[in-house]
Amino acid sequence: MSDLLKVSSSPHVRAKDDTTRIMLYVILALMPTTIFGIFNFGLRALALVVVCMATCVLSEYLFEKAIGKKSTVGDLSAAVTGLLLALNLPHTLPIWQAVIGSVFAIVVVKMLFGGLGQNFMNPALGGRVFLVISFAATMTHFEFDGVAGATPLALLKSGEAVNTIDMLIGRTGGTIGETSTICILIGAIILILLGVIDLTIPGVYICSFVVFLVLFGGHGLDSTFIVAHLCGGGLMLGAFFMATDYVTSPITPMGKVLFGICLGVLTGIFRIFGNSAEGVSFAIIFSNLLVPLIEKVTVPRAFGVTRVKKPKEVKANE
Amino acid sequence: MGLRTFKGGVHPYDGKELSKEKPTKELKPQGEMVYPLSQHIGAPATACVSVGDTVLRGQKIAEAGGFVSAPIFSSVSGSVKAIEPRRVATGDLVNSIIIESDGKFIETGFEGCEDYTDLSNEDIIKKIQDAGVVGMGGAGFPTHVKLSPNNPEKIEYIIANCAECEPYLTSDYRSMVEEPEKLITGMKIILQLFPKAKGLLGIEDNKADVIASLQKLTQNESRIEVVPLMTKYPQGGERQLIKACTGREINSKMLPADAGCIVDNVATINAVYTAVVEGKPVMDRIFTVTGDSVMEPRNFRICIGTSCKEILEAAGGYVRPPKKLISGGPMMGFALMDVDVPTTKTSGALLCLSQDEVSSFETTACINCGRCVSACPENLIPSRLSKFSDQGDKAEFEKWYGLECIECGSCSFACPARKPLAQAIKTMKKMVLADKRKK
After folding, report:
1. In this complex, do A12 and B333 lie within 8 Å of one another by their Cβ atoms?
2. What's the structural domain count of chain A?
3. In chain A, whose CA is at the least distance from the CA of B89?
4. pTM for this structure?
5. Under an 8 Å CB criterion, which residues of A touch B?
6. Is the ipTM of this complex over 0.90?
7. All domains of chain B, ordered by start, with CATH?
8. Residue A97, domain extent
9. Does A173 reside within a domain?
10. CATH number of the domain enclosing A248
11. Which residues are within 8 A (CB) of B75 and not within 5 positions of it... i.e. 6 or more apart?
12. Considering chain B, what percentage of its residues have pLDDT values greater than 90?
C-alpha cells in the first residue's frame, strides 16, 4: 500500500502565471521608460535604478531574516518596488537619500504591515512621498541637459508655454521614468497584452481627470493644456504602473471604476487648486487608503441573483 | 465571431487531442464487477439480490430507495459474490454488490419500442425511471425526477449539454461523432414530454465537425436547434450553459426549471434513448482513459461496474509512472489514491498525469490581482471568500454570496499565488449549508 498516490481536492491543474512571472512582466514593461530615462539623464539615472532595486531587495531580505520569516525576495515584488521608486526620483537626487527612500518603502510601508499583499499603500509611492516631505529641495530639483529648470507642469502652472511634442517623447525635465509618454504607453501595451492589467483603472482615471480639467482647469477644451497635463507630472506612469498595483487597488469591478474616478478628481484638485504643480503620487496614495471602503460598497451581485423574484417572461421570438 | 457564452471562465490546456481521434472500443470486462449502491443523488438503492444468486446482464440488482433514487442493473452475467462496502472514486466506502462475471454476457430479454410517439408521457417517464437513468455527466441526479417538474407547461427549453468543457474528456465528443442519432432521438423523446419546449444542443466550437454534422442531421427538425458556444471552461456548467443558450440566469436557490429549462448531458440523453427505444437499462457508458501516463489514450464503451484498473490495462497500461490519478477531468474530477476503483453511472473518465503540479506548488501571499474575480463564472470575489473561510466568518461568507459558488475551480486555476481558493470555498460552503440544515 506504499505506492498510493497523493490525493487533493480539485482542480488539479493551474495556469502558468505565478506571482514571480507577473512581477517579471512588470519589470519588462518598465524597461522602455527605464532605458529612455537612462539615455535621457545619463549614468546617474542608471546608478539610482541599481541602488534602489538593490536596496529594496536587500532590505526585504534582511528584514525577513531578522524576524525569522521565509525569504520572499524571489517573488521579485521588491525589485519592482525599487525600480518604480527609482523612476519616480529626479536623477540628481543624492544616492544616500535614495537608499533611505528604498528602505522606508520596503520596511515601513510594506514589511511592517505584513509584507506582500498586506501593504495599504503603494510602497514605491510611499517611499517617494516620504522623500518629498523629508528632502523637498533635492526631490524637486530637476535638471535637463545639465541645466536646472522647472518641469513642464510647473511652467504650465506659472502660465508659460510648453512643447507637447517634447513631452510626448520625453525630452524634458522630470523624474527618471516619468518624462516619456510614448515609452510608458509602450510599457502599458505590454502589460495589457500580457494580461497583467486591464484598462479599467487607467482608463477611468485619465477620462475623469480630463473631464475635471475641462470643467475646472480654466482653459476649457484647450488641447495643448490637456495634453500637457496628461503627459506631465508622472500621470501616465502613475495611471498605468502604480494605480494598477494589485495590492492597493480594489478587486471588485465596480470598485476599480470608483477608484479611477477618485484618482482623476484628486489629481485634478491637487494640480489645479493645490500649491504644487503635481499631484499624482498624493492622489494615488490617498486613494489607496480608500480601497477597503470602496471594496465594501462594491460587492458585485452574484450571477443569477438579480432575477431571484421571477423568471423573466419569454421574448416574443418564438 | 459572436459566439454565445457566459462571463468569466478560464482556458486550461484541453488535452483532448490525446483521445479525440480514436474510435470508441468495446470493452468486455473479465474480472470482478463492483456496483456501489449509491451512484446517484438521493436515497441509495437497496440490493434485491443475495450472495450466491445467479444474475444476467440487464437484471435489476438493486431497487430504487425512493422517488429521488434509481435502480441499479448488472452489466454482466455471473453470480453475486458479496455485498460489502467498497472504496469508490470519491474516497468513500460505499456498500456495493460484487458480481463475479462468467464472461458470457447472457442478457435478460429487453422489450424495445417500435414507435415511441405512441407512448404517453407517463409511459416514457416510467421507462426512464425503471431503466435507472441518472445524470451521467457527473451529478447523477435521477433523470425521471428532472423530467417531472412542477409546471411542465412552463418548460420552454430542453438543453442538451454537449459542451464537454472539462479538459481531456472526449467521451461525449466520440458519442456525438459515432452515434449522433441517439442524441437526436433522445432529445425528440424528451421534447415529446414538453410540447411547448424547444430543444437546444449547446456545443463548444472546438467541436466544429460535430456542430456541422448535427446541424445537418437536425435541419428538418423544427424543434431542435444547434447552438455553437465559445470554448471556455466551465461552459458546460448548468447555469453557464443556460445563460449561454437562452440568456437566462439562475442562482443556487433555483432549479433550471424555474427559468423554463431542463438541462441534460449527452450521455444522459443517449441513456434516455436506450431506455425508451431499446428498452435497455443503464448498463454501459462511454469512458475516456487519457493523460500523458497512459500508453494508448482512447475511449471505451465499458460495462458500468468495471474497475478503472481493468480499463487502464485495456489502454495498454502506463507509459510512464503516474503521479496523479483523477476520476473525471482535471478541473472537477476526484483524485484517486489507487486505480482500483469501480466505474459507476457517473464516471466519465480516468485521467493519469505524470506530473502532480499542484502538490509541487507552494502557496504564496494573495496579491489581490483579481484573476480569480475575472475567472469566476458566478461573479464572486473568490479571494475574499477564501479569506472568510480561513477566518471562519460564516456571516460575511454568505453576504459575499459564497453559497453561489458552483465549485468549478476556475479561481484556483487562475490564482498566481497558487492559493487553494476553490477548495477553501467548497469547505466553507459545506459548513454553512450544514448549519442551515441544523436550524
Report:
1. yes
2. 1
3. A7
4. 0.90
5. 4-15, 17-19, 21-22, 72, 75, 77, 115-118, 246-249, 251-253, 299-308, 311-312, 314, 318
6. no
7. 116-278 (3.40.50.11540), 371-438 (no CATH)
8. 19-297
9. yes
10. 1.10.3430
11. B29, B33, B57, B58, B283, B284, B303, B304, B305, B306
12. 79
